[in-house]
From TrEMBL:
PANTHER family: SENTRIN-SPECIFIC PROTEASE, SENTRIN-SPECIFIC PROTEASE 6. Residues 113-125 have a biased composition (Basic and acidic residues). Belongs to the peptidase C48 family. This is Ubiquitin-like protease family profile domain-containing protein. It comes from Goodea atripinnis.
Length: 151
């Protein structure tokens, strides 16, 4: 769809225009949802809805977008934006220096959670085991090829 909601012309759609006497209107998702839920028509085009691109700390490479998104979310929860009035300038939302250690912080957090889950599982297994029975049977090696397993 083009900006005005009409089907954009390209090599694949020229036949569509020759077959139809009026232009095909592409309904955007919000318009369809509104129509389904409210049973009325409403336009959600750029002439009706104002948009903004707040200034936020920006990545300077092509590999940190996910890390930046995580930092935006963390910063929002640490210090929620008090007002969404435009224009918004969040360029000082968090120090750029913070991003240099973010991957290491995430790694340490994941390892801490992993260790905690392993500890919780061990404690859970000990509680679930019947009294007097070991967690795993002991395997004793004897002379020759016979192995004996004792409880």
């Amino acid at each position: 769809c083009s900006d005005d909601g009409n089907l954009a012309e390209d090599a694949g759609t020229s036949d569509v225009y020759s077959l139809a006497s009026k232009p095909i209107i592409c309904k955007q998702y919000l318009e369809v949802e509104w129509e389904v839920r409210k049973a009325t028509q409403r336009s959600f085009g750029k002439d009706v809805m104002k948009g903004s691109s707040p200034r936020v700390p920006q990545q300077d490479n092509f590999s940190d977008c996910g890390v930046y998104i995580l930092q935006y979310v963390e910063s929002f929860f640490e210090d929620p934006i008090p007002s969404f009035h435009l224009p918004m300038n969040l360029s000082e939302w968090f120090p750029q220096q913070r991003m240099k250690t973010k991957r290491q912080e995430i790694k340490e957090l994941i390892l801490k959670i992993k260790d905690q889950q392993e500890q919780d599982k061990k404690e859970s297994d000990q509680v679930d085991a019947p009294p007097g029975s070991p967690e795993e049977p002991e395997i004793e090696e004897t002379r020759g090829s016979n192995l004996s397993i004792s409880p």
